[in-house]
Amino acid sequence: MNDEIHNNIEETENLLNSIDNSDAIQFSEWTKEKANLRYNGKLPKFPIYNNFIYWCNLGINIGSEQNKLRPVLILRTSKNSPICTILPLTTKRLQDGFWFHIDLEEVDSTVLVEQLKVVSKIRITDPYRKKGQLVTISQNDWNKINSQLESLYRLRPLKDE
């Protein structure tokens, strides 16, 4: 192993030794898994469709970013693209009243519209199924999500200088 890699690993190990053990273990496990995905990962063999729900490995992230293996709504992708735009879902309906959280009709989940993210399709592990069927969203949910996306991600007006 070259010196630069060794030094980076040693610095990371020192940092992990200084934090909560369970956090350090989770982070080190994710680092190993992410390296495996990055260098050995394969694109899924199953098709990935817009407006359907899949399981996605989001890993260990920073602050309030969504983590771990969780359901996601595929917002945009194409057959030949190695990436997709996703909206993470909770594993239980939140019913918290936040305008940027949409409780779904078809599954017991909440769409976290503020967490829009682009990921590699290598992170998509499986289709989300209910009674053996692929799960999509209702037209009503689609309308609500689209409305929140337009509100949250529209550019704000430029200020006159």
Characteristics of this structure?
161 residues; alpha+beta; SH3 type barrels; 2 domains; two-stranded antiparallel sheet; 9 strands; 23% strand
Could you please describe the fold and organization of this structure?
With 161 residues, the chain is an alpha+beta fold. The chain has two domains: 1-41; 43-153, SH3 type barrels (Roll), CATH 2.30.30. It is built from three helices and nine strands; from the N terminus they run ααβββββββββα. The protein has helices at residues 3-17, 21-40, 139-153; strands spanning 53-57, 69-76, 83-88, 101-103, 110-112, 117-120, 124-127, 129-130, 133-134. The strands form three sheets. The chain has a five-stranded antiparallel sheet, with no helix packed on it.
List the helices and strands and how they pair.
Blueprint: H1 3-17, H2 21-40, E1 53-57, E2 69-76, E3 83-88, E4 101-103, E5 110-112, E6 117-120, E7 124-127, E8 129-130, E9 133-134, H3 139-153
Antiparallel strand pairs: 1-2, 1-7, 2-3, 3-6, 4-5, 8-9
Task: Give a concise summary.
With 161 residues, this protein is α+β, with helices and mostly antiparallel strands. The protein is built from three helices and nine strands, in the order H-H-E-E-E-E-E-E-E-E-E-H.
Q: Which stretches are low in confidence, meaning pLDDT under 50 for 5 or more residues running?
A: none
For the termini, the CA-CA separation is 53 Å
And the CATH topology of the largest domain?
A: SH3 type barrels
The computed structural class is: alpha+beta
Q: How many strands, which pairing sense, and closed or not: the largest β-sheet?
A: 5 strands, antiparallel
Strand content: 15-25%
CATH architecture of the largest domain: Roll
